[in-house]
Amino acid sequence: MNIKTDTTSQKSSNRRLHLQVGLAFLAQAFTGIRLYAENQVDYGYEYYKEDGNRMTIETHSVYFEQKLTDSVTTKGELVYDGISGSTPTGMINATTGQPKYTQLQDIRRSGNIEFDCKLGLNTLSPGFAYSKESDYQSIGLSLNDAMEFNEKNTTLQYGISHNFDSVRVEQPNNYTGKTMTLWNDKSSTEVFIGVSQLLSPKTTFNAAFTFGNDSGYLSDPYRLVGILPINQPPINFVQGYPENRPSHRNKEVLFTSMTHYYDSLNASLEGSYRLYNDSYGVVANTVGLTWHQWLGSHFIAEPFFRIYEQSAASFYTYGSRGSVYLTKYGTYAASDYASSDYRLSEFYSTDLGLLATAVINAHVHIFAGYHRYEMHGLDGGATPSAMYPKANVYTVGLSILW
Description:
Blueprint: H1 8-34, E1 40-50, E2 55-67, E3 72-92, E4 99-119, E5 122-132, E6 136-149, E7 154-172, E8 179-200, E9 203-216, E10 224-227, E11 239-242, E12 248-262, E13 267-278, E14 283-295, E15 299-310, E16 319-321, E17 324-327, E18 330-333, E19 347-359, E20 364-377, E21 390-401
Antiparallel strand pairs: 1-2, 1-21, 2-3, 3-4, 4-5, 5-6, 6-7, 7-8, 8-9, 9-12, 10-11, 12-13, 13-14, 14-15, 15-19, 16-17, 17-18, 19-20, 20-21
């Protein structure tokens, strides 16, 4: 493995983390607008910038929704984003004790389409998704159903999805001394069941449970784990080895939310809770609050706050010596599982922001938003605080409805 090689897989995994932070904000913007009509097209632009001139991501997103017949509606999204900057490799600078960084640059193009087919009380929704980067390709298929009953006060939702992914890996050839490019397979399957219940004319409750399984090549081939010579001080990381994650991961997610509308304030409060658990040993909790406030008949202000906390993966390591990986859970042979990816450490993150929408008329809406995202370690400083990103995120967009 050529350690100087541009960390293509690393930038993919980092980008996906940052895009989850950003695109969730765009999704929040689009969701509020979608309540007004079935036919529309939305454009959103987002600028994600980490402190310390680390990572910059610019995202262009187009969402569309069109009723084809009385019983069939199509909807989809196109996303184009570019990433550039630096990100931690997982190793430590022997002189400063600070994380080592690598420069990266890449572009992602993705799209998805779904058809909502109304069949009596059921709405069947087959979907297709595709995403391509220089080091990562993904094809996704899904089939969901929503069943209304109890005079449409209750909706039962269930579905299944599967992703066929390929990860590019650069490996040295021990015979020729040259680097080989390999594509390793990865697959992901998720099934879910959920319910949406109208508790009163002003209160709705949602709950969903998801089970997922990932298998295949799940490591980041360019994420490094530092190895210490036996007689060197603990800070002198002199050599990096590829991380090694289990090739299977099960995950369970429970999500609940409740929204209540207040007549006197012309506003609603939405609260949510998400519990995540996986076979890596990661347990995570997310709590979110969003206030949807109408200001007159043409403006909507939506301040929100989310806090996320997780435990570390059982094989997460922040230091190693000789031929063993040293973790807070014990020691493991170099052939065992280990990762220095800070996203598998014990940490918490906060996301605080405001989204504002201007309703120009029944056919044109514009929105703009800002939020501040921060990550903080919870392992007593064992993982250097500089590894955790802090970022400002800006969003603007336009929605046209007919």
